[in-house]
Amino acid sequence: MDNHFFKNIEKKTGVNMKDVLDLAGSLQNANFKDEKTVRSVIRRVSQIANKQVSKDMEDKIVESIVKDGKQLDFNTINKMINKK
Predict the structure, then answer these.
(1) Residue 54: left if φ>0, alpha if ψ -120 to 50, beta else—which one?
(2) SS3 state at 78
(3) pLDDT tens-digit profile of 8-61?
(4) 8 A C-beta contact, residue 65 and residue 37
(5) Where along the chain do its domains lie?
(6) Calpha distance 4→6 (Å, rounded)
């Protein structure tokens, strides 16, 4: 991808693209049936998005992913975090 493309996204969102790409790489082989792994990913996404996630909201997201089998990706977690 073009470096200029990433710089434009960073300007518009305030999100560091290196952080997003690092997170995406770590998700490829992650075990999403493991509660600890899912919690770690949720915390990383909230840091990248600069959004606080309450313990209650984190628990709901974890339950949704681990127990209900929802797909885990940045977009899904971001939508859940922004539902307040």
Answers:
(1) beta
(2) helix
(3) 877 877 888 888 888 888 888 888 889 999 999 889 888 888 889 999 999 988
(4) no
(5) 19-82
(6) 5
